[in-house]
Structure to design on (1000 residues):
């Protein structure tokens, strides 16, 4: 066992939050280790947020730098809003995992490494010339290095597994150690293993033995090494049933709930694309909820079939990412022209073109709000977190069906993959918004397919309804009758009517998320920047600064009070993972001098980056506000990371 | 529809109050009339009938038929129709497209609607030209077609719609032409077929590509140049004096003379609409050396896409409760009461 302790003043203080990163080869089962550690964290009553980081390669060669899989969790005895800036603890199951993740580790953070994997061959694969565990290069960190592989083999010996199978219990050994470190109960994991391997009790017992051995090891290691047991007290949270949820799951469930609240079957047209495919995968398993999923021949067919589904009386939904959304654009125009309900989910990723398929960005806001030919307004909603995506999806279904319009729901690669605790909602707590279909002529003995109701919406008429035969299409419609009409006055009137309908959509007034309703600085965010902005504003407020956090869900139409609200602040800062798109919208709509803080490295903002940007408003140095946050080499996702297609949870065994 | 009384309509019932805007003399008029004549014979219900089209001259069709109609976007009508049929398989869907709409911008969707075998009728109006955009050559234009975009004549080889359909996996392939009196019979056969029924309809664009089909469509000498195929009947033309036989050495079709009506002696083939190999030969028959093969070239149904999707849904749903609250609470959960948490 090689242990090493970084030199620093004695520290007996228990932090209120800890960041742990589990990293190993993609075959080491790090996602499962992370998932179960997350569960134990939740059971301990800590708040948490997680972020998985997978290799982009489908089957990366073992031991390589691009085959490293990692799972980061931030948990604490206070509210947690992000997966954490830099880890306090790095568990490295092989040299490649150490190499890829080391830069991120906090100074004097703890490295736990499996020496059994630090063979000459693995060191070479990780491009290490000397063994970092022995050459002194890790001096600024605490290191706890020992042969986890051998200890695991020893622990599972009684169960007669083959060497390869026995070594696959390493992740449970490591989990056992982590559970000891943070004073966690092993029983839920034991129960889970028993359930998981109900058909193979030998494997269950071996994994449990490994788990127990790792836990027992903690006690021994504590005596002489850098390992300290820490107990983070629980955070008080609202009583109720909780689970963890990723954005992709949350959107899928929200769409199902939204369709139920509208009283409609759902027709989902999709085409495989990263990182949106997970929604198609989730929904494909929910046929009993009246969901039909259709994997189309391309993105265009996916949205066209969804519009066909809506035309025939179901709730049409399609989902994609930037490049696919671009392909769907013409069909969106048709849905706007024919005024049919449709929900379009855009899981944003880095662009333009193919861009960064597995990385997050918020750069499709212009595309969502403005990106169609003609004056083609549609509502845009942005979810701020995995849990929030559920409510946003319901909201999108409500607006689409009540206003007979396509709705764009924005999420991103970060939200799609990240997980957070979710207080399981009671579906009955949501107000239903039943869709209605026209059953008889609506103007004496005449049918007027484009006669508008008080909200500006036209009636929804299902083919198959006797006596209501009519024709719709993409050519400009005459008011009321819907006949083809190219006349100048009619086009003016219909353009105005389409615009007024969208602008008249009822959206809740904008609230201030944190802080006062007036003051020196408003930090205005949208989408997945919610977590880091909230934490950074909280920190700045704790330092006594007059700063508030405003987070906008309804990107279009904007909340009616937003302009006035923003005018109550001396300065407005808009942090975005793009070059300043929402800032431009706000400047245009309200003529306010909003500053932009941008980050376009495919990585989420870190709390520290935002806090530093906020403090620039209070440091007395003129003209240093806003600007660009540079790429951060220490941050997840790593350059080689991939994405979750929704299959990781169900399909993988504890070892995979 | 629970009411089993056959729907009685007349041609007039299928006419809308919209002024038809095709050029005077356009072949589309004749096709529209043929469809409006056919629908009453099918006991079709206007309320249950949907015409879906893309973009182009032919795609104006839905505005002129008193049923439900959806004039969509260029080339994508098959995708809309697929969504409509999956959402409501009871609807009777007719898809109207053209050679540009269906084989150029929409070739991909046409391929997949045929491959999937969605239960609908596809009418592809082939006039070998882009009419609505004022006369550019199309994917079915013959080599040498002079048009605004090919002033020296087109050089690319044309697509063969029926060969495309068969290659894409279509289980029903038929041909007709705008002014043919047989067109309603072809349409009726298409409607009777359960699955994607593909009908190529040669259509005369009198403005940009006048009379390009006169070789076989002109009334004079038509008998000699049209081979009307009927299931179970010998492949005869020219008043029964000529027939189609198989050259067994070259494995290709050939024209044979029939003496005194004895087609059996001449080894004239009897049309078997389920024979896919012969269908491949029929769709490829070069016009000139051979007459134009018309009528139902191939008809061999397979289960439809909608029925397969519905069947899979039934099996998947069997015994499952659509309990949303239970779905939301799925997976590993825990309960918070005050500050303590317990596994659920």
């Amino acid at each position: 066992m090689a242990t090493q302790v970084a030199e620093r003043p004695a520290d007996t203080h228990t932090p209120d939050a800890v960041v742990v990163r589990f990293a190993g080869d993609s075959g080491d089962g790090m996602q499962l280790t992370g998932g179960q550690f997350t569960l134990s964290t939740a059971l301990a009553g800590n708040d948490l947020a997680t972020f998985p980081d997978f290799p982009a390669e489908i089957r990366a060669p073992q031991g390589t730098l691009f085959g490293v899989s990692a799972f980061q969790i931030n948990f604490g005895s206070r509210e947690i809003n992000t997966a954490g800036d830099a880890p306090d603890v790095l568990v490295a199951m092989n040299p490649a995992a150490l190499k890829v993740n080391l830069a991120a580790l906090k100074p004097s953070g703890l490295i736990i490494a499996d020496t059994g994997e630090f063979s000459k061959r693995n060191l070479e694969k990780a491009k290490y010339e000397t063994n970092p565990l022995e050459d002194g290069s890790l001096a600024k960190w605490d290191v706890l290095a020992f042969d986890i592989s051998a200890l695991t083999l020893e622990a599972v010996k009684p169960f007669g597994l083959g060497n390869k199978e026995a070594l696959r219990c390493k992740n449970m050994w490591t989990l056992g150690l982590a559970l000891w470190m943070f004073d966690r109960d092993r029983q839920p994991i034991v129960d889970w293993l028993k359930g998981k391997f109900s058909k193979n009790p030998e494997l269950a017992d071996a994994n449990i033995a490994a788990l127990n051995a790792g836990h027992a090891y903690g006690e021994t290691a504590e005596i002489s090494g850098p390992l300290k047991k820490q107990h983070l007290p629980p955070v008080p949270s609202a009583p109720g049933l909780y689970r963890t949820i990723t954005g992709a799951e949350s959107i899928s469930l929200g769409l199902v709930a939204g369709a139920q609240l509208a009283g409609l079957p759902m027709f989902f047209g999709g085409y495989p694309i990263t990182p949106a495919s997970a929604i198609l995968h989730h929904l494909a398993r929910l046929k009993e909820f009246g969901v039909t999923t259709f994997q189309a021949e391309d993105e265009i067919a996916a949205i066209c079939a969804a519009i066909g589904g809506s035309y025939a009386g179901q709730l049409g939904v399609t989902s994609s990412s930037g490049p696919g959304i671009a392909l769907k654009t013409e069909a969106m125009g048709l849905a706007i022209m024919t005024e049919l309900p449709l929900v379009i989910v855009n899981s944003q990723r880095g662009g333009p073109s193919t861009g960064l398929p597995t990385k997050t960005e918020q750069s499709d806001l212009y595309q969502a709000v403005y990106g169609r030919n003609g004056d083609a307004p549609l509502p845009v909603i942005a979810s701020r977190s995995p849990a929030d995506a559920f409510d946003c999806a319901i909201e999108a279904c409500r607006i689409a069906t009540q206003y007979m319009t396509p709705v764009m729901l924005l999420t991103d690669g970060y939200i799609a993959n990240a997980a957070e605790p979710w207080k399981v909602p009671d579906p009955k707590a949501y107000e239903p918004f039943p869709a209605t279909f026209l059953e008889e002529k609506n103007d004496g003995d005449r049918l007027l397919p484009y006669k508008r109701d008080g909200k500006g919406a036209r009636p929804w008429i299902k083919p198959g309804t006797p006596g209501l035969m009519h024709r719709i299409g993409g050519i400009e419609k005459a008011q009321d009758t819907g006949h083809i009409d190219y006349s100048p006055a009619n086009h003016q009137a219909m353009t105005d009517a389409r615009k007024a309908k969208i602008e008249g959509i009822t959206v809740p007034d904008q609230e201030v998320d944190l802080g006062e309703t007036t003051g020196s600085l408003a930090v205005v965010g949208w989408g997945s920047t919610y977590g880091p902005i909230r934490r950074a504003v909280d920190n700045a407020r704790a330092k006594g600064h007059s700063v508030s956090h405003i987070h906008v869900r309804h990107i279009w139409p904007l909340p009616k009070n937003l302009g006035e609200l923003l005018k109550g602040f001396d300065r407005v800062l808009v942090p975005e993972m793009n070059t300043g798109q929402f800032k431009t919208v706000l400047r245009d709509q309200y003529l306010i001098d909003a500053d932009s803080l941008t980050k376009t490295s495919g990585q989420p903002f870190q709390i520290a980056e935002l806090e530093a940007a906020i403090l620039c408003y209070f440091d007395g140095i003129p003209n240093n506000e806003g600007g660009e946050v540079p790429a951060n080499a220490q941050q997840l996702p790593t350059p080689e990371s991939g994405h979750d297609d929704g299959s990781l949870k169900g399909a993988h065994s504890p070892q995979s | 529809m629970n009411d089993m009384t056959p729907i009685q309509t007349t041609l007039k019932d299928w006419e809308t109050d919209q002024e038809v805007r095709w050029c005077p003399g356009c072949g589309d008029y004749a096709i529209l009339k043929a469809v409006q004549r056919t629908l009453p014979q099918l006991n079709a219900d206007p309320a249950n009938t949907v015409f879906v089209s893309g973009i182009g001259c032919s795609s104006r069709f839905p505005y002129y038929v008193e049923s439900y109609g959806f004039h969509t976007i260029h080339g994508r009508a098959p995708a809309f129709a697929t969504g409509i049929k999956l959402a409501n398989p009871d609807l009777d869907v007719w898809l109207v497209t053209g050679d540009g709409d269906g084989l150029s911008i929409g070739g991909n969707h046409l391929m997949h609607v045929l491959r999937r075998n969605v239960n609908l009728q596809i009418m592809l109006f082939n006039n070998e030209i882009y009419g609505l955009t004022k006369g550019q050559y199309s994917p079915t234009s013959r080599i040498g077609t002079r048009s605004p975009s090919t002033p020296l004549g087109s050089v690319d080889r044309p697509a063969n719609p029926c060969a495309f359909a068969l290659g894409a996996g279509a289980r029903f392939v038929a041909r007709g032409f705008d002014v043919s009196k047989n067109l309603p019979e072809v349409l009726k056969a298409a409607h009777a077929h359960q699955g994607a029924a593909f009908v190529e309809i040669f259509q005369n664009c009198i403005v940009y590509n006048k009379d390009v089909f006169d070789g076989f469509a002109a009334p004079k000498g038509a008998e000699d140049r049209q081979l009307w195929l009927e299931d179970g009947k010998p492949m005869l033309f020219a008043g029964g004096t000529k027939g189609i036989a198989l050259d067994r050495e070259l494995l290709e079709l050939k024209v044979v003379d029939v003496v005194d009506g004895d087609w059996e002696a001449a080894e004239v083939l009897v049309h078997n609409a389920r024979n896919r190999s012969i269908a491949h030969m029929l769709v490829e028959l070069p016009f000139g050396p051979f007459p134009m093969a018309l009528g139902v070239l191939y008809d061999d149904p397979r289960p439809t896409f909608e029925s397969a999707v519905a069947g899979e849904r039934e099996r998947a749903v069997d015994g499952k409760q659509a309990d949303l609250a239970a779905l939301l609470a799925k997976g590993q959960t825990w309960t918070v009461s005050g500050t303590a948490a317990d596994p659920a």
